[in-house]
Amino acid sequence: xxxFSKHLSPKRFLNLLKAEKNPHTALALFYSATRQPNxxxxxxxxxHILHRLVDSKLVAHMGRVVDMIRTQNCKxxxxxxxxxIKAYAKNSMPDKALDVFKRMDEVFGCFxxxxxxxxxxxxxxxxxxxxxxxxxxxxxxxxxxxxxLQTYNVLVKIxxxxxxxxxxxxxxxxxxxxxxxxxxxSYGTLINGLAKSGKLExxxxxxxxxxxxxxxxxxxxxxILINGFFRIGQLEKANEIWERLLEDSSVYxxxxxxxxxINGLxxxxxxxxxxxxxxxxxQNERGLDLFxxxxxxxxxxxxxxxxxxxxxxxxxxKNGVSPDVVIYNAMLNGFSRAGKMRExxxxxxxxxxxxxxxxxxxxxxxxxxxxxxMVDEAISIWEHLLDKDHEPxxxxxxxxxxxxxxxxxxxxALCMLKEAENKGADMDIFAYSSxINGLxxxxxxxxxxxxxxxxxxxxxxxxxxVCNSLIDGFIRASKVDAAIFFFLxxxxxxxxxxxxxxxTLINGLxxxxxxxxxxxFVKEMLGKGWKPDMITYSLLIDGLCQGKKIDAALSLWQxxxxxxxxxxVTMHNIIIHGLCNTGKMEDALQLYFQMTEVDCFPNLVTHxxxxxxxxxxxxxxxxxxxxxxxxxxxxxxxxxxxxxxxKGLCSCRRISDAIKFLDDALSHGILPTAITWHILVRAxxxxx
Length: 688
Hints:
By secondary structure, this protein is an all-alpha fold. The protein has helices spanning 10-19, 23-34, 43-52, 62-72, 78-90, 94-102, 104-108, 114-126, 130-142, 149-161, 165-177, 184-196, 200-212, 219-231, 235-247, 255-267, 271-283, 290-302, 306-318, 325-337, 341-353, 359-371, 375-387, 394-406, 410-423, 429-441, 445-457, 464-476, 480-492, 499-511, 515-527, 534-546, 550-562, 569-581, 585-595, 604-616, 620-632, 639-651, 655-667, 674-687. α12 (184-196) runs parallel beside α14 (219-231) and α34 (569-581) runs antiparallel to α35 (585-595). The protein starts with 9 loop residues before the first helix and ends with a helix.
């Protein structure tokens, strides 16, 4: 208990309270003084301690202090009651605020004026209780209280919260009818509401009206508009408002303005302009705060300009601004993405020393280590995470499983997944999908299927990415029926297939020569509203060509053109290859000449395919012409081009010409392969 003098006065005690900076200690002093004999708190003391209880951690004590005022029968002004009502409003406790409002005469010995009515109205708004707020407005009239400017401003706030902006504008007119002039708060509330709802043009219109009616905008109005235009990506408009602010002699940019501008410019990748403002801010002696540095560092790291971000970080530390975990994480992510793992690990030590690590920090470092093949280091960090107070989240497990699988540690990933399941760890679909992808790539389809079953048991909804991975795994292993069975099973459970799902199945069926089944899935795809894309048609045409069904392939090709699709070079190459394989060289050549007419330019594969086709029909002249076109189109013949030529010339018994082409290949740095020597040696032996 505090040691007070025998003659403690409220005035002296009030000075003691004001001198105590810690609100908890101040409250303890207050309670201690209450127990002093022959002492009673004054209205001023009660008012001061109530001000100290506005914080959410202390507001629970407010009721006890209010009861003390009532018990002591201390007459207080409306200001004291307002402090209580506003505190409850700030902490979303409208019922307690209303109780105090109703008992103002009983507790404080005063009656509510228009300010109390306005504060009570605001308490309902802060708690999103619109209906109660509007009912309370009607209560004004029954008590003969005339709404003032603040009342109307609160009503404008209600309209904005309910997104009834036209009503908000009408309220401005009603104010004028009542002889009240809307102030900067009236307009600012409307501008803020419109801007947050993406109605920037309307917000700008209100801003202009404000100036026209002689209401000087404050810097907050400018900040709201600049930030709003940046949020919807309108850089030019944001810059226009900035320029208007600079021209306005009655208001000046503050730290928030600079932060909004720098953050917006960095997000628009205008780093040069961002740095210019940064320098201007320093020249004008505007204090650069944590947000200023954070905006620059985060933007630069996102743009992979980690070297510049590091310079900003170093200046921040030099100027005595302590980085928070958000800035540390941005730098950590920047170093990680740039592959600068030495710097990453050095920063990690600094973060540990300063107690600035959270689970996001661990996730960033784990991802970086795995992406740079540092698996042992990643596992060490994971074990460190488990030993610390931080609990791994669902992203942590996803990063761990994905990283292990990507680096070929599927067995360890599977063990980690099972351990996490046994512990009841927080895992989402990302961890499971990574595990399934890893197993499918290694052809471990039974284990992948088991993981899918486990997902089902845990109640997760399988996404298309997971299902497509397993379907693709079955197709790669030539288990087409298993792929179809899994596809149908998932559809029965509510899975929505994508174009990729259908394309994967169609590809597998075409490769297996099951064209009728492939067309069944095309029809199903169309029936579900999915339009076949270029990949779908390419797969079907390729399958038909592989099965020597060139007429059906050409019919489908015509269907592609009729549907308004523009075949790319890959699809052209597929149909040209099919025509060449069936000896329809003139048709293939005609299609080749038509490519440029539809802005599709032949590549090296196109020319190699045609050249091989002409050699097969012993038309060396046209094959040689295609060789000339390779050079004409600026392509560089590869070893495949040369091997086709070697084989073609040798099949026409032009071995000496083939040898000349070998010299040409060597002169261009193209090294012969085993296939090259096999073609040439066999030709020489057959010719002797």
